[in-house]
Specification:
Blueprint: E1 8-13, E2 18-23, E3 29-33, E4 48-53, E5 57-62, E6 68-72, E7 87-92, E8 96-101, E9 107-111
Antiparallel strand pairs: 1-2, 2-3, 4-5, 5-6, 7-8, 8-9
C-alpha cells in the first residue's frame, strides 16, 4: 500500500521512548510513543514555534504568545512554567526544564536541581547575567 508522511518543521526525541514534532502544515505539536505520564499528549489545536521532549515530560513555546507550556510528569516541578514569561528557546531535561527569556536572553530553569541521587547537581543553576542564543 501507499504510505503518507507528515512533514515537520522541528522534531525532538525524548529520553525514554517518546518523540514530538511540530507539523509543517499547521504548526501543531504531534507526539507519539510512551505516554504513561501524558508526555505524548500535547494540547490539541494549538500552534507552537519550538518543542522539546525530556524524560517524562515535554515542553513547547506557543506561537503568537511565546509563552512556554509543558505537559507530562511533574514530580520535580519540571512542568511548572514561570507565568507570563516569553521564551525564545526551551529545553526539557530529566527532572528539569530550561528556557531563554525573550526579554533578557538570560537562561532560566525550573524543576529538580539534582538527578535522582546520581550526584549530578546544579541542573537548574544558571550563570547569572550571561545571555544565551540557544539552550
Amino acid at each position: 500500500g501507499r504510505r503518507y508522511w507528515t512533514p515537520y518543521t522541528q522534531i525532538s526525541a525524548g529520553i525514554y521512548g517518546h518523540t514530538c514534532g511540530i507539523r509543517a502544515d499547521n504548526s501543531r505539536a504531534e507526539c507519539w510513543g510512551y505516554n504513561y505520564w501524558g508526555q505524548s499528549t500535547a494540547s490539541p489545536n494549538l500552534p507552537y514555534t519550538q518543542i522539546s521532549a525530556g524524560l517524562y515530560h515535554t515542553c513547547g513555546i506557543r506561537a503568537g504568545t511565546s509563552l512556554a507550556e509543558c505537559w507530562g510528569r511533574n514530580n520535580d516541578g519540571q512542568t511548572t512554567v514561570p507565568p507570563d514569561v516569553e521564551y525564545t528557546q526551551i529545553s526539557a531535561g530529566s527532572g528539569h526544564t530550561c528556557g531563554i527569556r525573550a526579554d533578557t536572553s538570560l537562561a532560566e530553569c525550573w524543576g529538580s536541581n539534582s538527578s535522582g541521587g546520581h550526584n549530578y547537581h546544579g541542573q537548574t543553576t544558571v550563570s547569572p547575567n550571561v545571555p544565551y542564543t540557544q539552550i
